[in-house]
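User: As part of a screening pipeline, I want to sanity-check one entry by hand. Below is the sequence and the SMILES for 5CA. Please return the complex as structure tokens so I can compare it with the automated output.
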Amino acid sequence: MRLSRYFLPVLREVPKEAEIVSHRLMLRAGMIRQQASGLYSWLPLGYKVLMKVQRIIEEEQNRAGAIELLMPTIQSADLWRESGRYDAYGKEMLRIEDRHEREFLYGPTNEEMITDIFRSYVRSYKDLPLNLYHIQWKFRDEVRPRFGTMRSREFLMKDAYSFDEDKDSAVKAYRRMFVSYLRTFRRMGLTAIPMRAETGPIGGDLSHEFIVLADTGESAVFCHADLLDKPIPGIDTDYEGDLQPIVDDWTSLYAATEDIVDMAEYEQAVPEEKRVSARGIEVGQTFYFGTKYSEPMKANVTGADGKDTPVHMGSYGIGLTRVLPAIIEASHDDDGIIWPVSVAPFEAVLINLKAGDDACNSACEELYAELADAGIDILYDDRDQAAGAKFATADLVGIPYQLIVGPRGLKSGEVELKHRKSGEREAVPLAEAVSRLK
Ligand SMILES: Nc1ncnc2c1ncn2[C@@H]1O[C@H](COS(=O)(=O)NC(=O)[C@@H](N)CS)[C@@H](O)[C@H]1O
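Assistant: Here is the complex for your manual check:
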């Protein structure tokens, strides 16, 4: 992509309403624009990162055996009356009337709707286990939206729902999602620690919040330091096998959020030098809630014994539009964002130090074509601007590699490769530049 033809509205000044670094940087880097309280437009650069995060989530959900579909954002109130949550959900729910004065709502989550889909088609235990998920916009009328898209009113969520014949099988489904979350967040460059959590409006009696430690996190968390550098399950993890050892390994060390921590238990379980009490960002949450929805909504299957019983369910959410600021909180410096390559909007930015200089222009045009042919997601800063402005933009938007082409380097047949994360710079022969980025 040529920057002169892109749409990247970076801001010079720090927006005053932004209280935390990720909010400031997402605005300055031209990733988002606030349209109203808690409502954002995703501008091209931000949207590109959001879609890279989505692809990683889809890959890991599919690897764990979940099947993707897509449900609408608008839901019928009657469906929520069946589960009893229509009134219980409170003021966070945006209630809507259509032209025929029928009652609808903008879905804050989809347990009722997915249960309705399930009960319409599945009758036998032979069709289980089943895990259906979608990635869809949600609306929660947060009383105090803040920190940019960290806590917004409209947000993008992956929500998966598992259906099993009994609790034992449902706990196996829970473990598959638990393990897939360990892989998913680490692939985005995040260390997300599973912590026992309250279940809140979703319900149930088994739940973990996946927490990224960050000074600006909304909740206080308490955990054992050994959880911070534990290796995640490999790409060859057998999701049909016994995942209990992995889950036990990750839950045997103490980790709890402030709403369920037992300080005496924490101090008893964790030696002083291993105690980590910090602030955390909840990027995902897993729930087992049995027949909470299938009972009232009569989502039953006929078992091997010929008896009809309500299915045991769980739900598993990831806040995609919260993951982006979480990554920035965990990976930035004074010059801007430092994207992990896996989610970076572009893998590299080609910087022409002297647009208008024939040698630089032709070298850049050649490199740009070769990089694109090599399948590298490249941004070419071809603007007629001073070098300093180009470096500042590249550092701000956080692209992992900068390929810098200047008249002096070209004279010795070299370009400069800068690693955004380490700041290291190295002279690379022109002919090797593309292979260095592959
Ligand atoms: N207001 C919000 N803004 C941004 N992300 C949010 C917001 N509310 C929740 N999230 C994200 O969405 C994830 C799932 O939300 S939740 O309430 O915990 N879980 C559910 O809604 C269940 N239905 C899981 S499928 C959270 O872990 C968080 O990462």
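Points to compare against the pipeline: The two ends are 17 Å apart (CA to CA). The CA atoms of residues 26 and 32 lie 6 Å apart.
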